[in-house]
Design a protein that fits this description.
Chains A, B, C, D: InterPro entries: DNA-bd_HTH_TetR-type_CS, Homeodomain-like_sf, HTH-type_TetR-like_transc_reg, HTH_TetR. Four copies of one chain form a homotetramer. The first copy, chain A, is mostly helical. Chain A has nine helices and two strands. Chain A has two domains: about 1-50, Arc Repressor Mutant, subunit A, CATH 1.10.10; about 55-215, Tetracycline Repressor, domain 2 (Orthogonal Bundle). Chain B binds a DNA duplex (21 and 21 nucleotides) through α2 and α3.
DNA sequence: GATGAATGAGGATTCATTCAT
DNA sequence: AATGAATGAATCCTCATTCAT
């Protein structure tokens, strides 16, 4: 066990990160401890630090690789589409993606909210920037692919669109739960404060896309 | 000093809360300590706890009273407008407000992001709900006023609009700084990741409003 | 209200002390706060300190005056008895007293257990010793009265007997509740650990008195 | 240092507990701090909490293991005695034990006085009850052994006798020091208040045993 | 004399991280 | 490489006491 292959090393790091992700589904960053991650991963506490310098690095990696995977999948999905895609078809695609992000990848969006205020303060800068660089390139490739399929949208605009998409979901997420307190439902009150995340996000994105394409057509 | 009037008590509580707010302009919730707030307020550490049960209560109060003030001002501003306001005029109003929120009240939006994951866990529930109740009523009054001035928008829709507005700003804020690391500007890179908060928020809101009114007119 | 008569002053001090005593019936010294005493007494927190230098002084006073009253009453009771009292009658008297102490004055015994380890560290020494002096004299008078009524017991022995009586009750009290945990009854277990305070105290005292008088008669 | 054997773990826990015990010889529970225990044990403050959940748990353990050892030793001592022991021999044995408890194990008795009012509020209940269970069984075994050696005393009575023994010592201890103040000897005064712990405890126990056996013989 | 606002020393406890094995 | 025991800085909070009014 003395010398691990690169693959073995990567797999163990992933196991640790995955465990952290699972914990993050139901708990906040602050309430997750390294001990819990170690116990649930089935590795020793010290081992964590052989793979990640700090707790923040674990979550920064989750954020970067999560978006990396998401963007890669988007590229794949897009390449399956016919060479030309109408504005309407593209909008539907984005709406489906939004639904998917909310239903299956909401942690990604929650991780995003941690990045600047929590993670960057103690994450390894070089590592983070290297990951971000790769992500940026992927995002550029994604933008490229989209711009090739959809008239009226440039590479830059496409790339930026996904930032806006995440922003909308993240923002609405922040505003959710005003009809609850600490996850306890309150007696029916505050109805106009209530956010239906999926409905509101899709509507907001739809309006955004409509507005965006309208502005391009002029 | 023996017995404080309600006003004096409120003023001191506000002084403490204001200090916390100032610290929050440049630091994160987690890195602000009660000792710092005490020292910077010029009061003893114990005094803090005479005014606020917990650290979280301080910030919950800032959040609630911040939005309370914001909504109250909006009502005032709106009442100065002519009895009928066109959709375009209303949109401009909202855009100005967005700019104002970003430029002068961005902490409010950042506080919002703390609410569910951080504050509610340890804030006094009754106090919070009382504050939220008042805020809700104000938001309803605001919605009422708007619906009276603007055709095509109901009280509920107007009230909900401000939630969306905050969501957009908050979400974009979360996505900002991808061209920085821990507030250090990086050499020009990641340009398509860059969020220009004001521009992007206004554009997104504009699109939202356009889409919203278009959907109403049908 | 500027100048209080000695009587008024004493009455207020007693009101405060009484409140503390009431709280002590159901709570421990450590969990009683000066704020609670003030609130329940209906006086200001600062007023407490006009009457008692420290929290410990309040309880020391309760201890001293409690025993003072108890001894005074004993003297009165004794003086009502016929001039000669048999050993058996005296024993019955002591047993009744034990029962009374347990049923109605158990706080007194609990206070006793606080004296050395808790109170003396921060109680006013002069005041305490003055009180103890008075108590001592009363105890001597009590001893005197008893020795006059009961053959076979000297003043010193009688005086000492009450110390032993309190010791027995206090000690058994300390050993109570081994069939409970933090006042929660446990499922029937530990039966031989169980102390029945009244029964055990009376039996122990009875044995003590029997032994004592037997040793004197030899 | 990587993984400690059960024995090593126990030893370190004992080292910490021993340190607490030493401090408790001369200071009160309330005035002993975790920092002091850590410093005097030569371990870090955090280490304390790896071994004991709370400060109260340390002292609860001292209490339980102290009595456990005491009872075990008593069983051993008793098994060395001839198969039949006269009432007088047994009484002498108990008196010697009382002397030993007072001279060498008085902290044990002082710890007992902390149990209900102080320790149980914050000690781990399951741990405590497990320890108490073991102690109870030991006490039963001790009772058994005694009842086998001494006619006139049942297992239950023997077991209960040790509770009474501790109660007598503990109670007298509470009443001690009335000729002192905060451990400072006062000029010769209050002589009849003076408890000579050893003499008084032995005498009280002797009377108790005499009374007890007399009641059995009838 | 009465009051309660202000105080701050002091305490228990948490947890990311280190490092000897 | 893996481990988990050890660590101690850091944090929130309590509450007896002081003192200006």
């Amino acid at each position: 066990m003395n010398i691990l292959t690169e693959k073995q090393r990567t797999e163990k790091a992933e196991k640790i990160a995955d465990t952290a992700l699972q914990l993050f589904q139901t708990r906040s960053f602050g309430s997750i401890t390294m001990s819990q991650i170690a116990a649930k991963s089935g590795v020793g506490k010290g081992t964590l630090f052989n793979y990640f310098e700090t707790k923040e690095n674990i979550f920064m990696r989750l954020l970067l690789s999560g978006y990396q995977d998401y963007f890669e999948n988007l590229i794949q999905d897009f390449q399956k589409l016919p060479s030309q895609v109408s504005v309407e078809e593209f909008s539907n695609f984005m709406i489906n993606q939004t639904q998917y992000l909310i239903r299956d990848k909401s942690v990604l969006v929650r991780l995003n909210a941690l990045r600047a205020p929590v993670l960057e303060g103690r994450a390894n800068m070089d590592q983070t920037l290297a990951g971000r660089q790769v992500l940026y390139e992927t995002s550029q490739r994604l933008g490229q692919v989209i711009s090739e399929h959809v008239t009226f949208i440039s590479k830059s605009e496409a790339s930026h669109l996904f930032i806006v998409q995440s922003a909308i979901i993240s923002g609405l997420m922040n505003m959710m739960g005003l009809d609850e307190f600490d996850h306890e439902q309150l007696s029916p009150k505050f109805t106009d404060f209530k956010i239906n995340l999926e409905t509101d996000a899709i509507q907001t994105l739809k309006f955004y896309l409509t507005g965006f394409f309208a502005s391009k057509k002029q």
